[in-house]
Specification:
By secondary structure, the protein is mainly α. It has a single domain, classed as Serine Threonine Protein Phosphatase 5, Tetratricopeptide repeat, CATH 1.25.40. 60% of the residues lie in helices and 0% in strands. Helix 3 packs antiparallel against helix 4 and helix 5 runs antiparallel to helix 6. The longest helix has 26 residues. It is globular, with a radius of gyration of 22 Å. 30% of the residues are buried.
């Protein structure tokens, strides 16, 4: 009689991450949030109040199911003005990136010409800047709640953009993004697999900072998880085929 196999906590957490897209992050990946920290360490609270008021006024016209082109342009202009005066205000970069994405037709991402290529490059630059400004300088430094939200939004947004770039690369005969002005310089020539791996890392960070959808996407796009899952599924299919050949009923569904 065979004995049951007992998994270690480490092995169980790995299997959970591979097969459960909604699994929680490990304890080593927990973000330590300090509610006493200022919303933005770069500016005093009095300045922050004015910045937040101006930012909310800029994005309010976009809070509709179908914002007009004029409203999008107005929002981008207002946030650009805010950024030019307060270049260390991370939240404005995240919101401008959202507005820029609304301005871009999906089919123009990584394939269009000017002005779409310029907008795509600025969009990725804004997300990169927001991440840089909101990320603590040392791994053990606690996060403020506002910066955690900024990082979740920025990493998740960039993850979806990189997945779109991977799809564009996958549809090309070379399986790579082109070396053209339509593609931001840092992504030119990258393969579908490289872009998917980059997207997976961003989704993992978005999930780490609290975005539940990003956490699920991180598992589904992780190349190692997909590879291990495929190996396990194939082994289970082989076992079922062998069992069927011997006339044994197997109650496993893949």
């Amino acid at each position: 009689m065979s004995s049951a196999t007992k998994l270690t906590l480490h092995d169980a957490s790995i299997l959970s991450a591979l097969f459960d897209a909604e699994s929680a992050p490990s304890s080593s990946n927990i973000v330590h949030i300090d509610n006493t920290l200022p919303s933005d360490p770069h500016y005093p609270s009095s300045t922050l109040e004015a910045l937040q008021t101006a930012e909310l006024a800029a994005i309010k016209p976009l809070n509709t199911p179908s914002p007009t082109s004029a409203a999008i342009h107005s929002c981008i202009d207002a946030l650009t003005s805010l950024i030019s005066t307060y270049p260390l205000y991370a939240s404005a970069y995240v919101n401008r990136a959202q507005a820029l994405r609304l301005q871009l037709p999906a089919q123009a991402l990584f394939t269009g010409t000017e002005p779409h290529s310029h907008t795509t490059a600025l969009l990725l630059s804004d997300l990169r800047t927001a991440i840089s400004l909101a990320t603590p300088r040392t791994p053990n430094t606690p996060f403020s709640p506002s910066h955690t939200r900024i990082l979740a939004a920025a990493h998740t947004h960039r993850g979806y953009l990189l997945m779109h770039a991977a799809n564009v690369a996958g549809s090309a005969s070379t399986n790579t993004l082109g070396d053209t002005e339509a593609v931001p310089e840092e992504l030119r020539g990258l393969s579908k697999e490289q872009l998917e791996e980059m997207a997976s890392k961003d989704f993992a960070l978005g999930g780490r900072y609290g975005d539940r959808d990003a956490r699920g996407m991180a598992v589904r796009t992780n190349p190692y998880a997909k590879m291990c899952g495929a190996v396990v599924k194939e082994a289970m299919r082989e076992e079922m085929r062998d069992a069927a050949g011997m006339g044994v009923s197997v109650g496993v569904r893949v």
